[in-house]
Design brief:
The complex is a heterodimer of chains A (about 575) and B (about 260). Chain A is built from 18 helices and 4 strands. Chain A has about 575 residues and is mostly helical. The longest helix of chain B is centred in the first third of the chain and has 32 residues. Chain B has a 5-stranded mixed beta sheet with strand order 3-2-1-5-8. A 5-stranded mixed beta sheet of chain B has the order 4-10-9-6-7. The chains are: A mainly alpha (about 575), B alpha+beta (about 260).
């Protein structure tokens, strides 16, 4: 009995198994998507609180300031401890509960089986387990705000010894991370097996949509890079709960008292384990975004991607290289010339496949007939924004120029350009693009464009001044934004403008939120392939039924056969036989 | 000495080299951004959907983009091999041990303790059992003969102009980061390790030490001060500290 037959043999299931504990990749994808969007919004709100404090240090937050407890904001004025909690949790939530689950859990789950012509993921129950591990991790992270001393406050990087001696919130953070990493591991195995085993007939590796390639490489990164942090998380948990000293050296004196621990551990061990995960993690954030952008650019230029093969080789090479660049986050920990030369060299080398991918997208525009719909605007917006993000990585990746820039706002500007106007714009592009596949309806173009222009303008007003503040040497993670330093004086005034831009960015998300929910019920109904696209997900009905396809499609050609000379229409889908 | 646009004035001998590298990288970034930005805008206008004719299946022909990628890779190689690696080697391998002043910097939440070896040039012993946050924050053992003339200060680092300084960084509690933006120097301060960094101040005056690594709720106010003196003034300051030490047995924190 084939997988498809098996699916058809399913009898109707009850509410709980259909909507909550579902094993259907589409339901799980939607669960991931909605949960991740909620967390993205929540993480964004944490940042808005921080931005108030940065713009108006020590002034009470109007209206909502009074809603917080005296342990966090007495009289509406934020305490430094709470600022540090917000910072640590903003980073953690945006990365591990927002972007990764949206990029991999939601888009990967929903789109990959459809794009390879599979009825579901290879291991549906594992898929469900992966979502619920993620959900549990999210609940633990949220609950940590109620812990004595508040949520984790040692940065999203949780460097010991600070994190080892931090308040209880850090314990919750570690337990939450163990759940989240377990979820990623379960998901990654599933993606790898699904993509290798369940491709439709005729869908060779070189006919895979770029998005699937990006998800495949991402899955390997998740599989191989995440276990070290899971181990490190458990070790830190032991340091905190069982009196071990994996990350604590001997002879610590904290606020005048000798710390009673066995000692002999190494704080740098944590950093190595953490960044061995967290650098590939950066590519986990960016590769699915690039995959989405590739799909949308091919579709809306109405021509094939320029250099599909170089794109595939670049993304594989990028995946390999991402495992040997981690210590460029640690140049200033006491690194000799040889080791720093190694990591600088690998860092310069990894910039080359990134440049190739971006170049391919730019050149793909040439010769097209470009449709500027909302998803395309977001995909196009990704290109220069990710460009700035990538370029500003160069001075940080060379150890000598990193000296004055390390741990300054330059770093914050750099990676936010990569992840916020980079990845998040691409994720929005994906939402507008695949919305009709999920719901059978399109979102409003007008409100989509308002959302796009408002977001991209505001994001630049938030993140570009960070680069300027960083050049001046303003450290990151300062409760007053650097106001107590004289050298920061020429650039400190940007904080007000940046915060206002952040508040405006929040306002420009309202059209999206309203558009999203209204369009589910009231959006314009469209047929199964509204964008006249070529890849397999558009062969399925919208929304696809359980088992996805009426008949499992066969694949006849590459993924981006648009405007083929001599063809009668300007797209030749993978699933249509030659006439 | 030219500092790069948007950065602070330079107050150290190697700062100019760092800024030159940062400048070159930014010129490369700017050139790439302007070139691809121009290409991008041109492509969006030229190939907008309302133009007549179908999309071009073949797209761009020729190897132009490959050549451009090779050029970028070569420039990166030059920046790496010609500038960054030698500059880094100078910072971590070429310590001017015989002609430099030395000082220990012991960081704690949220202060910088400075430990000068005094006229004998030898740091006295310290012990965590002697640490007292009020009177002896670094746990200096005054019974050690080498410690008798040692001078300690809090948040005040005094340096001699045009004389290399080696700073031995250590921490009592958590990781801090010793950064002086004007000196183009920054280094993590890691408990359990003593890490030396060196630089040569070339400008007299007052500068700020900024902690660059999150070290707890007071991270934002973990600020120290550097005062760079002409040699005679520096000596006068040292003598004054020695006299104070002889008088009251402990060092200077009158600036706070």
């Amino acid at each position: 009995m084939s997988a498809a037959d098996h699916h058809e043999a399913h009898h109707q299931q009850g509410f709980w198994r259909t909507y909550i504990f579902s094993t259907d990749h589409k339901t799980i994808g939607i669960q991931y998507g909605l949960t991740a969007l909620v967390f993205l919004f929540f993480g964004f709100c944490l940042m808005l609180l921080m931005r108030w404090q940065l713009a108006y240090p020590g002034q009470p937050i109007p209206v909502i300031g009074g809603l917080f407890s005296d342990a966090t904001m007495p009289g509406g004025v934020m305490l430094p401890e709470f600022y540090n909690s917000l910072g640590a949790m903003h980073g953690t939530i945006m990365v591990f509960l927002g972007v990764v689950p949206l990029a991999v859990g939601a888009f990967g789950n929903f789109v990959v089986p459809l794009q390879i012509g599979a009825p579901d993921m290879a291991f549906p129950k594992l898929n469900m387990a992966s979502y619920w591990c993620f959900f549990a991790g999210g609940v633990v992270m949220l609950y940590s705000f109620t812990a004595p001393g508040g949520a984790a406050n040692s940065g999203w990087t949780s460097y010991p010894p600070l994190s080892d001696i931090a308040t209880t919130g850090q314990t919750f953070w570690l337990i939450g991370m163990v759940f989240l990493i377990t979820s990623s591991l379960l998901g990654s195995v599933n993606f790898i097996v699904t993509i290798i085993q369940l491709r439709a007939e005729g869908l060779s590796y070189m006919r895979l949509p770029f998005f699937v390639w990006a998800q495949l490489v991402t899955a390997f990164l998740l599989l191989l890079a995440f276990p070290p942090l899971e181990a490190a998380g458990v070790l830190q948990l032991m340091d905190r709960l069982a009196g071990t000293s994996f990350f604590l050296p001997s002879g610590l004196v904290v606020t005048g008292d000798v710390l009673q621990v066995s000692g002999g551990g190494s704080p740098l061990l944590w950093q190595h384990l953490f960044w061995f995960l967290a650098h590939p993690e950066v590519y986990v954030l960016i590769l699915p975004a690039m995959g989405i952008v590739g799909e949308i650019i091919a579709n809306n230029t109405r021509k094939p991607l320029f250099g599909y093969k170089s794109l595939v080789y670049a993304v594989i090479f990028l995946g390999f290289m991402s495992f040997i660049v981690w210590a460029h986050h640690m140049f200033l920990t006491g690194m000799g010339t040889t080791i720093s030369a190694f990591f600088q060299t690998t860092t310069m080398i990894i910039s080359i496949p990134s440049v190739i991918i971006l170049t391919v997208f730019f050149i793909s525009l040439w010769g097209g007939r470009i449709r500027f719909n909302t998803s395309m605007l977001f995909a196009l917006g990704f290109l220069p924004m990710f460009g700035i993000g990538g370029l500003t990585g160069l001075p940080l990746g060379l150890s000598a120029s990193d000296i004055p820039l390390h741990d300054t706002y330059y770093v914050i500007g750099h990676f936010h350009y990569v992840v916020a106007p980079g990845t998040i714009l691409a994720l929005f592009a994906g939402i507008y693009y695949w919305f009709p596949k999920v719901t059978g309806r399109v979102m409003s173009e007008l409100w989509g464009k308002v959302h796009f222009w408002g977001s991209i303008v505001c994001m630049n007003f938030i993140f570009f001044p960070m680069l300027i503040q960083g050049l001046m040497g303003v450290s990151r993670r300062l409760y007053d934004g650097g106001a107590s330093y004289d050298f920061a004086e020429p650039v400190i005034h940007y904080n007000t403008m940046m915060s206002h831009a952040a508040f405006a960015l929040a306002v420009f998300q309202l059209p999206f939120i309203i558009n999203f929910f209204v369009s589910i019920k009231k959006g314009k109904k469209v047929d199964d392939n509204p964008w006249h696209a070529t890849t397999l997900e558009w062969a399925a009905p919208s929304p696809p039924p359980h088992g996805n396809f009426d008949a499992i499609p066969k694949v006849y050609r590459g993924p981006y056969e648009y405007s083929v000379p001599g063809a009668e229409k300007d797209y030749s889908p993978q699933f249509e036989a030659e006439a | 000495m030219e500092h790069f646009w948007g950065m602070t004035e330079i107050a150290s001998a190697h700062g100019g080299d760092i800024d030159r590298l940062i400048a070159y990288i930014h010129y490369l970034m700017l050139a790439l951004f302007v070139f691809w930005g121009g290409f991008f805008i041109l492509a969006l206008i030229k190939f907008r959907g309302s133009r007549p004719g179908p999309a071009d299946y073949a797209g761009v022909k020729g190897k132009f983009s490959t050549y451009l990628e090779v050029v970028v890779a070569l420039i990166e190689a030059v920046l790496l091999i010609g500038f960054s690696i030698p500059l880094w080697a100078e910072r971590v391998n070429e310590f001017p041990t015989d002609k430099a002043n030395e000082v220990r910097l012991v960081a704690e939440q949220f202060a910088w303790n400075v430990h000068y070896p005094g006229p004998d040039g030898v740091f006295g012993k310290t012990s965590i059992d002697l640490v007292n946050n009020e009177t002896n924050p670094i746990g200096l053992d005054r019974n050690d003969p080498a410690a008798a003339d040692d001078i300690t200060t809090i948040n005040q680092l005094h340096l001699e102009n045009n004389k290399p300084i080696i700073v031995h960084l250590s921490s009592k509690d958590v990781i801090h980061s010793f950064g002086i933006p004007h000196m183009r120097i920054k280094h993590d301060v890691i408990p359990g390790m003593s890490i030396p960094v060196w630089f040569t101040p070339v400008k007299t005056g007052a500068f700020e030490i900024a902690c660059a690594q999150l070290c707890g709720l007071g991270h934002y106010r973990m600020k120290g001060f550097v005062t760079v003196h002409e040699p005679t003034e520096y000596q006068a300051w040292m003598d004054e500290q020695a006299a104070l030490l002889a008088e009251e047995g402990e060092g200077d924190d009158f600036w706070d």
